[in-house]
Amino acid sequence: MTLDADEARKAGIKVEKLQWREETEQITVTGTIEPNQNKLARVAPRISGRIIEVTAGLGDNVRQGQTLALLNSIEMGDARSAYLQAQSEVELAQANFKRAERLLSEHIIPKKDYLLARYNLTKAQAGLRAATDRLRLLDVDPSITAKSGLVAVFPVVAPFAGTVIAKTAVMGELAPQDQPLVTVADLSTVWIEADLFEKDLSEAKTGAHATVSIVAYPNEHFQGRLTYISSTMDPQSRTVKARVEAPNPDGKLKPGMFATVNIASGTGGKALMVPEVAVTLMQDTPTVFVAEKGGFEPRPVEVGERFAGKAVIKSGLAAGERVVVSGAYSLKARILKSQIGETD
Questions:
Q1: 193 closest CA partner among 239, 251, 152
Q2: What residues pair up with 71 in beta bridges, in sequence order?
Q3: Longest CA–CA separation in the chain, Å
Q4: CA distances (Å), 52 to each of 48, 73, 171, 175, 176, in order?
């Protein structure tokens, strides 16, 4: 089949020279995609309260410090009232101390009255520190408290930027202390939890490169690293828990999905390899298109192992030949169309 340069470009045809490459041995396992547990937070209030507003929904992307829900709490009201009272006591004690300091310098009051005023100021300042610390332990900024008219209301906020993947908060319900209302996960990286068979343990090493495939995106492969191998084995299945961590910038890897993971375990020698998409079936025979004589010739091949989006070519091609690595299906469609035309 012959195509000019413009037709080849429009058909998305890309040609590369076939070369010997290192064939990496693989351990293939199946696993489940999970949120990165180091970047997951089940956000719960420090004290119980009634939910008066829910501002985050499932699937929402939230920023660090964003309010997820508002609660009304008697305990929070008491804590804020104590803080406001402590502030007032400090202001009064400061004024009395300054007055006593002035009167002492003018020899109007005895020194014991001055010392009493200083003691009262120190005591009031200690009370304010205690009230401030109590608010901070409840994740409330004391500097905002004095300006807020809603003394008993406090926010439940996101500890970091992420996505809301679970929510139990319902407006009007009572939220018990330490019961998660919203779960936030940073899904920019995910974990793939898998089981390694006993026979593969000698080949699997933490830090090894891994390629992740999922059914939802059959033509895409996601890269990751083997980051964890358990120290214990399940006596029933004779497997060991393992974990692959993979970047997920586009959010395509979603928690709960099943995944196939190929973990690099060593080098198995040299092989001729092409992208899997370069291999197409012609009359039920694996075929690769070779660029030669100003056109493209379909060449039957014997395919070996497939991994990480690559297929090993055992026979039918030679190193140095220029093969179609993208657009093979367009060439196949043109051939089938021409054969139909000849039949007609």
A1: 239
A2: 51, 154
A3: 123
A4: 13, 10, 5, 10, 14
pLDDT (tens place) for every residue of the chain, 344 residues total: 677 667 777 778 888 988 877 666 788 899 999 999 999 999 999 889 999 999 999 999 999 999 999 999 888 888 888 898 999 999 999 999 999 999 989 889 999 999 999 999 999 999 999 999 988 887 777 776 544 456 688 888 999 999 999 999 999 999 988 889 999 999 999 999 999 999 888 888 999 989 999 999 988 889 999 999 999 999 999 999 999 999 999 999 999 999 999 898 865 667 888 888 889 999 889 999 998 877 888 999 999 877 767 788 989 998 889 998 888 888 888 888 877 755 54
Q: Which domains does the chain have, with CATH numbers?
A: 5-35+188-343 (2.40.30.170), 44-73+152-186 (2.40.50.100), 74-149 (1.10.287)
pTM: 0.63
Separation CA 318–CA 328 (nearest Å): 18
Q: Which residue has the tokens 């140095």?
A: 320
